[in-house]
């Protein structure tokens, strides 16, 4: 097992209705000036906004609304102005990954006098800056942002979508599965595939060990089982709860301790989202089975066979189990009723394939750090296989 350091200080409040009794104090302990961030209006429709405002009674609340899916740098710029002008003490982010991701960068940008895009292209700058505490109320199970340091921010002017890491995870995360009952089937499926992909990026890694592999296999099985249940019964508490806790556990650092390789499918998908603004999890669902097929060889076969046996509960000879596991992955994505090809998300020609492949290889260090190294031509082939 490789050496590792693991520390995660996020205070998790999991379960029903904790916000009504605990949110005020969780926020107020950091100060009275609060920036409330949210997205395009789902929290107003669901009534969550009104509950939050009630819970914040007595605090000075400034709002930043309209943070979009695949959050754009302009939202972060708007947030930077608000936190500086109002000398904000704490950010309360209410929404999915996009709202929380943007809020984390705004939390750093309060202490930065330049353009916050600088903090995205060079995360190291954030290590030397203070960061406002984040309290969040998660409304969509997918990214793991509720318990990690990451954010992914898009810049439409440059066709870039890049990850950036701050010094801290959220201070407090409220995880109430009931708040995800209203998530659309499209976003529920995309979120489940995102969780599956986070596991895959860490499972297919030369540094994974028996402990982390076993944890991931259990999480995989929970997501595979509960995503269809949540689609069929959107208000099934246990299914929503399993997805929510899987989301958090898949990407809070725990199952990734000791890993060695950089991620592969995420940097490739981020190019699709950067150029075409597609839903992250849907893009991952299209690419993942193709990538698995592409990298299956004698060296990776034992890992695929383990994946097939312990995740998909398949039996038989290694080669057959490996192939069947990839097919099972494809079939599961398809069963969630999202597109499984690029034309299905309106990417109908190859005009950007080369540019996207070049950027993915460079940003993701795919040609030297990936589980199976990929060159630009390999990534183009993956896009072509997805048509
Ligand atoms: O904007 P509102 O109106 O809130 O609607 C959102 C949005 O349209 C809606 N939604 C959220 N909660 C809802 C709801 N609708 C009804 N009821 C609810 N309870 O869902 C839509 C998508 O929301 P978004 O926040 O974009 O989804 P998600 O949580 O999947 O986040 C995706 C973003 O996170 C990044 C992705 O690249 C993408 O930009 N990622 C962040 C990571 C991280 N920070 O660690 C890792 C991931 O790999 C990922 O890259
Ligand atoms: Zn993801």
From TrEMBL:
Domain Alcohol dehydrogenase iron-type/glycerol dehydrogenase GldA, residue spans: 10-177
GO CC aspect terms: cytosol
GO molecular function, one term: alcohol dehydrogenase (NADP+) activity
Annotated SUPFAM superfamilies: Dehydroquinate synthase-like (SSF56796)
Domain annotation Fe-containing alcohol dehydrogenase-like C-terminal: ranges: 188-387
CDD domains given in the database record: BDH (cd08187)
Entry keywords, A to Z: Oxidoreductase
Name of the protein in its database record: Iron-containing alcohol dehydrogenase
Organism annotation: Weissella diestrammenae
């Amino acid at each position: 097992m490789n050496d590792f350091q693991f520390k995660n200080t996020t205070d998790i409040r999991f379960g029903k209705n904790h916000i009504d009794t605990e949110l005020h104090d969780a926020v107020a302990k950091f100060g009275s000036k609060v920036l409330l961030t949210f997205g395009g209006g789902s929290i107003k429709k669901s009534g969550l906004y009104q509950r939050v405002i009630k819970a914040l009674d007595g605090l000075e609340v400034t709002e930043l609304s309209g943070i979009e899916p695949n959050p754009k740098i302009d939202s972060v710029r708007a947030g930077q102005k608000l936190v500086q002008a109002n000398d904000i003490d704490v950010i309360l982010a209410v929404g999915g990954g996009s709202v929380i991701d943007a809020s984390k960068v705004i939390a750093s940008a309060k202490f930065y006098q330049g353009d916050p895009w600088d903090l995205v292209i060079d995360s190291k700058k954030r290590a030397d800056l203070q960061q406002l505490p984040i309290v969040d109320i998660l409304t969509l199970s997918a990214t793991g942002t509720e318990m990690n340091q990451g954010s992914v921010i898009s810049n439409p002017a440059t066709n870039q979508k890049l990850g950036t890491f701050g010094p801290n995870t959220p201070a407090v995360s409220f995880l109430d599965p009931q708040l995800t009952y209203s998530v659309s089937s499209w976003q529920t499926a995309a979120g489940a595939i995102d969780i599956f992909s986070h596991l895959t990026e860490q499972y297919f890694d030369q540094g994974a060990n028996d402990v982390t592999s076993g944890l991931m296999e259990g999480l995989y099985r929970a997501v595979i089982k509960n995503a269809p249940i949540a689609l069929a019964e959107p208000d099934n508490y246990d299914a929503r709860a399993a997805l929510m806790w899987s989301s958090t556990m898949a990407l809070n650092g725990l199952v990734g301790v000791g890993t060695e390789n950089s991620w592969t499918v995420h940097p490739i998908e981020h190019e699709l989202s950067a150029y075409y603004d597609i839903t992250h999890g849907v893009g991952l669902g299209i690419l993942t089975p193709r990538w698995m097929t592409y990298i299956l060889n004698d060296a990776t076969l034992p890992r695929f066979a383990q994946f097939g046996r312990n995740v998909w509960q398949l039996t038989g000879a290694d080669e057959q189990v490996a192939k069947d596991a990839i097919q099972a992955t494809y079939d599961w994505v398809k069963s969630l009723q999202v597109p499984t090809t690029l034309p299905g998300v309106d990417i109908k020609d190859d005009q950007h394939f080369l540019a996207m492949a070049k950027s993915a290889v460079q940003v993701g260090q795919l040609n030297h750090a990936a589980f199976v190294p990929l060159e630009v031509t390999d990534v183009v082939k993956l896009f072509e296989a997805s048509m």
